[in-house]
Amino acid sequence: MFSINSIFVLIVGVAAVLFDRRIQKSLVNLPRVFCNAMSVEAIAGREERCLDYIRTNAEQGKPQSVLDAIDRFGWTQEWLMNVGETKGVILTDELLKKQPKNVLEIGAFVGYSGVRIGMSLPVDGHLTSVELSNKYAGIARQTVDYAGLSSKVTIVEGTVSTVLKDYVQSNGLPPFDFVFIDHAKDYYLSDLLYLLDNSLIAPGGIIVADNIIYPGAPDYREYVNGHPERFRTVEHLTKLEYSEKEDMVMVSELLH
Ligand code: MG
After folding, report:
1. From 47, 105, 131, 211, active-site residue
2. Cα-based torsion angle of the residue sequence 69, 72, 78, 82 in order, rounded to the nearest 10 degrees
3. Residue 21 pLDDT > 90
4. Which residues, listed in sequence order, are joined to residue 251 by a DSSP beta bridge?
5. Number of domains the chain is built from
6. What is the pLDDT of residues 177-192, one digit of tens each?
7. For 26-74, what is each residue's pLDDT tens digit?
8. Which of 11, 81, 240, 241 is the most exposed place for a label (fewest CB within 10 A)?
């Protein structure tokens, strides 16, 4: 026979379990709501916070100090889509080997690779960086200026297919002898073909392309690897910036 006490305990127990599940459910959902709100806010001001971090932590006029500050921000504060210090070494090595005079970058973002390229150029070398977002272009200019490289780096707002040909013609630039591709992955191949169709890359020019595996540019990779008569390519298997994810940088020489 059940006593009144034991029935009471049973009812309380079942109620507690049910209530607890409800509490559990709402507790599970709460962090998601907060996280969503916080991540939207975090992404919204991220580039400005990076610029503030540079100004607070890097030595003005010292490009390496600016790169170190941005890398530290990417590792310890908020993730950023820069080429970063690991893949950045591949880019720097190619620049030092080629000693290019006329470099094109597609995708400036906060100016990290602009600084990395600018500091690795010969005395008479110059970088033209094409950036679609006027917000990123503005931040990149300030980063480059803080690093003391304004005279070596010009950031042009727009896309390759809309502004580059006019810019090259009006400034009397020769075909680019080094190209760094690091913008929207869906546009890698079409922008490469545009550059080739318009003879904007010099024969013997070096083309470095970031993020081949992550987020990934499979059509670009397939095209370049499918034309060995035109491109001599080395694929560098490496890690995504500020992460342990697998990524790849492709370095291709335009043979003709
Ligand atoms: Mg990238």
Report:
1. 211
2. 70
3. no
4. 208, 234
5. 1
6. 999 999 999 999 999 9
7. 444 343 333 333 444 447 899 999 999 999 999 999 999 999 999 999 9
8. 11
Burial class of residue 243 (count of CB atoms within 10 Å of its CB; 0-12, 13-18, 19+):
middle
182 is catalytic: yes
Q: Which residues surround ligand 1, an ion (CB under 5 A)?
A: 182, 210-211
Catalytic residue among 182, 219, 245, 253: 182
Active site residue 225: no
Going by the DSSP 8-state scheme, the letter that residue 183 receives in this structure is S
**Containing domain of residue 117, as a range?**
82-254
In whole angstroms, what separates CA 231 from the centre of its chain?
24
Concerning whether 94 is annotated as a catalytic residue, the answer is: no
Determine, yes or no, domain membership for 4.
Answer: no
The 10s digit of each residue's pLDDT in 130-157 is 999 999 999 999 999 999 999 999 999 9
Q: Which single residue is written with the structure tokens 């109620």?
A: 15
Rounded to the nearest angstrom, the gap between the alpha carbon of residue 189 and the centroid of all alpha carbons in its chain is: 17
Report pLDDT for 117: 98
d(C-alpha 129, C-alpha 5), whole Å: 79
User: CA 90 from chain center: how many Å?
Assistant: 15
Residue 174 lies in a domain: yes
Q: Where are the alpha helices (DSSP H) in 79-161?
A: 84-98, 112-120, 134-146
DSSP secondary-structure letter at 189?
A: H
Residue type, 48: E
What percentage of the chain's residues is helix, strand, coil (to nearest 5)? 55, 20, 25
